[in-house]
Amino acid sequence: MIRPIVEFPEAVLRQPARPVERVDAEIDRLIEDMIETMYDAPGIGLAAPQIGVPLRLFVYDIGHTDGARQPQALINPVILERRGAQSDDEGCLSVPDYRVVVSRANWVKIQGMDRTRKVVTLEGEGLLARLFQHETDHLNGRLLIDRISSLKRNMFLRRHRKRMRTTHVHDHTCDHDHDEREESAGAL
Ligand code: NI
């Protein structure tokens, strides 16, 4: 079942999520819904708080745009090691129509439980490392706008407030900018 994606500034995105205590049929269903919601968005990663569920788990699939779908889930993930640095464009399904350059570690080692209830230790580099850090941030109540300069954050907040004020049905006679809905593919 596709669930609605929660967007900034909803409070659930700002609270640290609780550990999953038991991986049962309910968690399996939640994972299925998250995967469906992620592909529908479309995005390459989705954390449970993004559908309003404050639990420590996320799903991802960074390869499905050019190959077969291989959805993965990580339950109670912990980043064990970070190395190097990268700066690249990043987007978030909970912060729609916004992309910004975010500095992250270029390599991480992460541990968690997969969908088969096996504890796995994974290494990610580049985009996968970025995804692991972005989704783990979600579980700690942090968003990509917490990872940028205060100048850029203030610009984002100003634009966000303006858009909240101008939410109405556009016709072709209004004189302010129409934000085209950007492609969300690649958002986390
Ligand atoms: Ni996100």
Name the beta content range.
25-35%
- Order of secondary-structure elements: HEEEEEEEHH
Considering the protein shown, what is the CATH homologous superfamily of the largest domain?
Answer: Peptide deformylase
Q: What is the radius of gyration?
A: 17 Å
Question: What is the topology?
Answer:
Layout: H1 25-40, E1 45-47, E2 57-60, E3 72-83, E4 86-92, E5 95-104, E6 107-113, E7 119-125, H2 127-139, H3 150-165
What does this structure look like?
- The chain has two domains: 11-148, Alpha-Beta Complex (Peptide Deformylase); 149-188.
- Helices cover 24% and strands 27% of the residues.
- It has helices spanning 25-40, 127-139, 150-165; strands spanning 45-47, 57-60, 72-83, 86-92, 95-104, 107-113, 119-125.
- Strand 4 and strand 5 (95-104) form a beta hairpin.
- The longest helix is centred in the first third of the chain and has 16 residues, at 25-40.
- It binds nickel (II) ion.
- Nickel (II) ion binds next to helix 2.
